[in-house]
Structures are given as C-alpha cells and as structure tokens.
Amino acid sequence: MKRYSILGFVLALVIAVVLAINGYIAVQAQSAPEKVTLSGGSFGAVTFNHSKHAETIGCKDCHHQGELDQKCNSCHTAEASVDSKTAFHKSCIDCHKEKEQGPTGCMDCHKKE
User: Fold this and answer.
1) To pair with 22 at 20 to 30 A between CA atoms, which of 31, 36, 51, 57?
2) What is the dihedral of CA 61, 63, 64, 65, to 10 degrees?
3) Residue 73 CB contacts under 8 Å (≥ 6 apart), including other chains
4) CA 99/CA 73 separation, integer angstroms
5) Neighbours of 86 (CB within 10 A)
6) Structural contact between residues 56 and 49, judged by C-beta atoms closer than 8 angstroms
7) pLDDT tens string for the chain (113 positions)?
8) Are 40 and 46 in contact (CB under 8 A)?
9) Interatomic CA distance for residues 15 and 33, integer angstroms
C-alpha cells in the first residue's frame, strides 16, 4: 500500500511540474511582442510573427542567454564568433527546413521597403 502512495506522490509531482512549465511558457508567450522587425542589411528588413513563434517554440531556442528583452545583436556582433547574420540564418532557416514549414528563400523573409 505504501508503494502506491509514493507512486501517486511522484506522479502528482510530475504533473505539477509539467503544468508549471506550461503556465510559464504561456505567460512568456502572452508578454511577447506580436511582431519583431530585424534589420536585414542590403536585402531589406525581416519582420516575423514573434508571438506565434513564442507559442510554438521555447523562448530559449532563440534567447539562449536567458535575457528575453536582450537584442540578438548585443552579443552577435560583427566581431563575435557568430555574427547576427549567421546566427539568424542558421537558427531560422535550419528550423524552418527541419520542421518543413516557414520560408527558406532569401526574399521570402527579406522585404525592401
């Protein structure tokens, strides 16, 4: 009988942790800006639906340093080991190809205005 109560406690704990993580992700997604525009150099700016991305992938996939309000190019400078262009292209295009959804061509993302 004692074994079942320990198993029940562990199961309840796992469920509580999963619900807490899902709640945290939902709060982060709700506070995320709806759209984000990144300068795109000579190809033109890139605007994407940030809130949709925040709902479907983890914040730390992009904000890997943990600072959600930090701009990517504050670390990914021209002098950094991975500049912002390389970081965006690798993260965005690789993810879109892996999930087989989202744009992968240059002008699909870059829009000159």
Assistant:
1) 36
2) -170
3) 84
4) 25
5) 12
6) no
7) 556 677 767 776 777 666 566 555 544 545 678 898 888 788 889 999 988 888 888 788 888 776 777 778 788 888 889 888 898 898 899 999 999 999 999 999 998 76
8) yes
9) 29
Which residue is it, tokens 């704990």?
13
Rounded to whole angstroms, the Cα distance separating 101 from 19 reads 28
Counting every residue, how long is the chain?
Answer: 113
| Token output for 96 | 């879109």
Strand partners, 2: none
Q: Which pairing describes strands 35-38 and 45-49: parallel, antiparallel, or unpaired?
A: antiparallel
Distance CA 24, CA 45 (A): 31
DSSP per-residue string spanning 34-58: SEEEE--GGG-EEEEEHHHHHHHS-
Distance CA 40, CA 85 (A): 8
